[in-house]
């Protein structure tokens, strides 16, 4: 399907000429956000992000980048865009609380055969596909995503809002120490050895209070909205067993205080109870993964106002079907499923706030299949579509707001359909409270389509009042395109200049 852009060519050419004249790159999205243009959605059923039923037959008025009115019988200013939802569901744009935008190939490929040009170019494609899938905000949990975040805000790259952590911070021998056994490292005096991950800013290895403070402050200097540390071992790393506790209390508390000095918080990769308790002692706020935690620890996280951000596919029987899964890891996968299958329901029982996480590191199609499967699998793990939708919207928005003055998006809340919230919206054909497939959830993972295709039931994607995907009227805002007269294909890998 090809969309036409009425009047766009002249506008874009004029804007491009002005941009070149003043020596700047296009910043259409920012210019659009500062205006007061109106878009009125008529006859939509609203999922607001917090209520377990739809508000039927509503109108939603967007003015500039915010939702200005919600009600019935609304009207817009003369010349405004009016979109008849025809009974479709209008809901908040989706939020991924733990993604790896910059680590966009398999670990061994990134480590041995990529540089910053490779990962940066790939990241622009990753972000476009995120947005086409209805994700309007992403929290990146490790990588040099600062320039990408700025390019997104300036309108030079199409994609979701981005909350960058910068390089994840790890101890020597920790989950972020990606050196190979053949690399130097048999003596602490063996200087100058960096993995490709560290060289490119995916992670930083730092030991002792002075080093971890320097690493934290460097990320904050570069534009981190929150700090990510490795607080324990992992399943995807070769030299740090998953049961290990990483970083001393002194080191963790130093990192947390440095983040608090900048008004933001610390997120920690962690699994076991001993590590989580140590992190809680230092007031770490978000716990990534956390499968081995007991209900006692869950209660403590809830009391402390923390969030758990797990990729639930780690407890899925389909994980064992991953063609990249080493054979020696299969017993651990089976044990995880047997012993921690109630993890999701226990989190809810203990009033822990949970945020959606795709957390799949790998090539485009692998990550996209995993993300769509994760949406469906969570409905099984948490027992309801409504709970999963909150994790994808309002609860995630609350978590992101903890970045305080480091939050680049302070004009309104994210993850909600309410007056004064950001106009980050998707319009879908169907009711996601009853059918999670309308936002892309699928029980297929490794047997899913091998190439990216748009989710057909998502008919419109808006971010900050700008329409980036529109299969109702075919009109896109100028912020959705970077160059004159683009064509938009039903199967998307990129926006392609017209011949």
* Number of DSSP helical runs: 15
**CA-based gyration radius:** 22 Å
Compute the average pLDDT. 85
Strand content: 15-25%
Largest sheet: 8 strands, mixed
> Stretches where pLDDT falls below 50 for ≥5 residues?
1-35, 482-499
Shape, principal axes of CA atoms = globular
Structural class: alpha/beta
Helix content, binned percent: 25-40%
Number of E-state strands: 20
**What is the end-to-end distance?**
16 Å
Structural overview:
The protein is of the alpha/beta class. The chain contains 15 helices and 20 strands. Strands 1, 2, 3, 4, 5, 16, 17 and 18 form an eight-stranded mixed sheet that branches. The protein has a five-stranded parallel sheet with strand order 11-12-13-14-15, sandwiched between helices. A three-stranded parallel sheet has the order 6-7-8. Residues 1-35 and 482-499 have low confidence and may be disordered.
Brief sketch in words of this structure:
This protein is of the alpha/beta class and 499 residues long. The chain has helices at 8-22, 28-33, 107-113, 116-132, 146-154, 196-199, 208-222, 249-261, 273-281, 295-303, 330-339, 343-349, 364-382, 385-392, 394-400; strands at residues 38-46, 55-63, 66-71, 81-84, 89-92, 94-99, 135-140, 161-164, 168-170, 203-205, 227-230, 266-270, 286-289, 307-309, 353-354, 425-428, 458-463, 466-470, 486-487, 496-497.
